[in-house]
Write a structure and sequence with these properties.
Blueprint lengths: L10 E10 L6 E9 L5 E7 L7 H15 L3 E5 L19 H13 L4 E10 L1 H12 L4 E7 L5 H6 L8 H16 L9 H13 L3 H7 L21 E6 L5 H10 L4 E6 L16 H12 L13 E5 L5 E5 L8 E6 L6 E3 L26 H5 L2 E4 L7 E5 L2 E8 L3 E10 L5 E12 L2 E8 L3 E5 L4 E7 L15 E13 L5 E3 L6 H7 L2 E13 L4 E13 L6 E13 L7 E11 L5 E10 L4 E9 L2 E9 L1
Parallel strand pairs: 3-4, 3-5, 5-6, 6-7, 7-8, 8-9
Antiparallel strand pairs: 1-2, 2-4, 9-10, 10-22, 11-21, 12-21, 13-20, 14-19, 14-21, 15-18, 15-21, 16-17, 16-20, 23-24, 24-25, 25-26, 26-27, 27-28, 28-29
Helix pairs in contact: 1-11, 2-3, 5-7
Length: about 625
Amino acid sequence: MEPANGERYDVEVRHDARVPTATPGVTLSADLFLPRGAGPAPVVVCLLPYRKDALGGLGVRAALHEFAAAGVACVLADPLGLGSSDGLARPPFDPAEADDGADLVRWAAGQAWSTGAVGMWGFSYGALLALRTAARRPPALRAVVSVLGMLDPERDFVHPGGAPGCCTALAMWGLATLHNQVLPPVGDFHAADEQRRWRRRAEDAAPYLADLYRHPAGDPRWRERVVDAAAITVPVLCVAGWRDMFCDGSLRTFERLGGPRKLLVGPWSHTIPDDAPEHPADTCALALRWWRRWLAGEENGVDTEPPVTLHLPGPESGWHDFDAWPPAGVAQETVAVGAGDGVSAAPDATVGALSGVWGIPAAGVERALDQHDDDTRAATVTGEAVRGPLLLLGRPVVTLDLTWSAARRVVVKLTDVDPAGRSVLITGGILADVPAERSAVRITLDPACHELPTGHALRVVVSESAFPRLWPVAGGGTLRVGRVGLTIPVAPAGAGKPATLPAPDPARQAAGSPWLSHRPRWQIMREPARERVTVVLGDETSALLPRGGVRVDTASHVRAAADRDASAATRVEGAADTTVVLPTGERVRTEVRLRLTREAGSATARVTVDGDEILRRRWDF
C-alpha cells in the first residue's frame, strides 16, 4: 500500500497477460497496473465488456492507474469472447459471466506480485459483474466497490419497469456493443492471434441485439439474469447518482446486501463521479480507504463512520452523513392533489421526449427540459403551492383510479411546478400492465432527492408514453384518471450531519485517461402538422490511446421518430463511424448502421483499411 509518508509509486503497465479459464486452451486477456517497487500488494480486478483496448478501457484507466499509484495492483480484463480474450461471447447479463470474475480473482490471488487479498471495482455493467462475482463468493474476494450499478438487467435497463425498451438498450447500447464487436484490434492490429479472434467474432458471433430481440419484456429468461445481492457477504461500497438511470438499482443493492456496506449518492447522471460536470467527488480516494481497510487490514474507520453519505439540494446544499438508508426521521407525508371529477387524455406516443435524464444514458442529457409541453399532452393533477420548502428524500408513491378502454401500461411522472408554470421533472415510474376498464393501481416511483421551494407545487403526470425510452403503443382510446393519491418522503430541516468529500485531482485524471475531446449531441424536433416528434442522441469523441499512440475518432448517433397516435410503425435508426489511425499511418475505418422497429431489426457493418474492404456483414433480428 501507499507509504506512510505519502510517497506514490510509479505505475508499470503490462498488456495482454493471459489468464487461464476452466476450458483448456481458452484464456482471458488482462492488462496489469502494478505499483513498481511495492512488493506483494493487494489486488483490484475490473471486468468490463467494452473493449479495454479502446474507448471503454480508456474510461476506467484513470481509476485503476490511481489505485496502482497508491500501492494497489490492478487487473483490467475483457470477458470471454470480447476484446482480446478467447472464445465467443455469452449472451448479455448471462449468470455464467461470474465464471470470468471467479477465474480472474483466483488467478490474481496467486500471482507473485499479489498478497492474495483481492477486491473488485466496476462502473455500470462492470459494477454488475463485480456484484455477480461477489454473489458467487470466490474465496480470495474480500471487498467490492460498485459504481452506478444495477441488479435487474430487464427492469433496470433493457425493459424499464417491464415495458418494452426502445432507445436506451436496443438502439444506443445495441449500437455501441455491435460497434465494439466488429471494431478490429486497436492495441496490436497486425498480431495474428488478435486478427484470428476478431475475424471469428465479426463473422460468427451473434450481436447482443439478437438476444435482446429473442427475449422480449416478460420473458422468463430475464429472471435468471437478476443478481442476488443478499448472497453477497463481503464488504461493498455502493456509489449511486440521483439522476442516474440505475439509481434505484444501486439503492436496492445497498438495501439487500448481506455484509458490511457503505452508500454514497451524489447529484450525478450516468458518469464516473470523478468526471461529473456538477459536484464531482474523488471516489478513487474513497475506494482506496475501502481497499486499505478490507484488503490490507488497516484500521482507518470506514467501518465505524456513518454508513450513508448523501448530497442534498437547497439552502444546505452539500454532503451529509446519515446512520441509515432510508434515513431516520424521513416522514411519509400524504399530499392532496387531484380533481374531484377526474381528468382525461387521449394517448400521445410523443410524450417523454423532454424527460432527458430519466433513463437515458447519454452524455449531455444530464438535465431534463421544461416538462410543460409534455404535461399538456398527458393527464395531469397539480396540488396547491407549498407554504414552506420540502425536501423529498426517498421513493414517492402514487395511487390512481384509472379507466382505460383497453389494457395498457401507465407511466407516471412527478414534477415541480413553479409560479410561472415551468415543470421540472423530479422522478417517475412505470407500470407495464394495467387491466382494461377500471383499475386501482399503486406505483412506487424511482428514488428522489429534490427540494420543493416555497410557492412551488407538485404535479402528477399520467400517460402511457416515455418516448424514446419505451416503444410507443398503437391504438386509440381515452385514459381517465379519477382519484389520485400521493405520498412523499419528506426529510426534516437540518437532516443529516454535514460532511466533506475530497474533490478529484484534474492532473491525476489526465495522467490516467488522456481524452482529447468529447462533444455530445441531443436534439428534439417536433412537427406540429404531422404530430410527430424526432429525438436524436449521440456524440463525437476523439482520443489518443495510451498504448502505441493510436488515435481514435468516433461519431455515433441514434434517431427515433414517433407519431402522436403511433399509427405508423415507429422506427429507430443508428450509425457509428470510427477511424483508427495506427502508428504505421494506416487508417482503419469501421461503419455500423442500425434499423429497428419494436418487432424486428437489422444491422450492417463494414470495415476498411486505407479504403480496402476487409469485412462486410449483415444481421437480421
